[in-house]
Request: fold
Amino acid sequence: MNQNLKQSIKDKARQLGFSLAGVTTPEPPPHYSTFENWLSQGHHGTMAYLDTDRSRLRRADPKQILPECKSILVLATPYNPPQSSTLSEVKIAAYAQGDDYHNVLPARMKELVQFIEEQVGGPIKNRWYTDTGPILERDLAQRAGIGWIGKNTCLINPKQGSYFLLSEILLDLELDPDSPFETDHCGTCTRCIEACPTDCILPDRTLDARRCISYLTIELKDDIPVELRDKMGDWVFGCDICQMVCPWNRFAPEGDSAFVDKEPPHSLTDELTLTLQTFNQRFKRTPIQRAKRRGYLRNVAVALGNVGDMHALPVLQQNALNDKEPMISEHAKWAIEKIKKREN
Reply:
């Protein structure tokens, strides 16, 4: 009965768009000590929410979240690999080019829980997360048989690569756990390490977030360190470089339609003209809204400086002189100086 139920749950998960599903126990995650060491080294940067007593306690033991938890269902949703773009176009991480997964996936998990409750004939205590809860989701995913944690810190599945989003449902329901994914298929490959322009990938399969382009363009709310700006290229929200060079991503399947960009490409120069109102209108219910206008335009200014297009100088000068956000003005001035130096 248990195996039949588990298979039915996995079948339903696939119908809902979760391309991979696995079950693990609520035991403490195997690499929690790595997480603790990462925090102690300050590699989490300004993400102070990771370093609270409550957060640490819950990440160390999923039962601190749901004491009745007997099984954890780990799910993966694919998104399309990054599409090629010109230097003048906005470059954002592939997962962020459509709807915000924080808005899309909870409804699917809720439907999956309802299905499970129908199968067992009654309510089940549960909690679900998708990159929002205090759990080490890649650790749980590896233990649930989804894949291995690669050198670039991404979870990699040998048949689907790493372009997918993880979700977890903690259940007060006994399900047979799947076998952990024990093997490491990175081998001697170091493409991701060599390709990272900011050298943020560490030897223990963690990142120094303070140097990661994704952190710098999304999580960091202050000025981007000057010494890192010219290493960021033309990325304005997130980064896919370490995944783009990963050989396993040649197996990446077609992604979920919810995460496909529904608008034509925008130019970097045009983005600098966004007002607060137009920014909020365009990026409502998308991941980019997290950066807010000041963070997004800060990133756009840096990208324009790195692209080095003289035609961007008038709009950069407008932002440098007139934008009410000091951070945008400062980064626009940096971009102007860089473009002028390149032309001289």
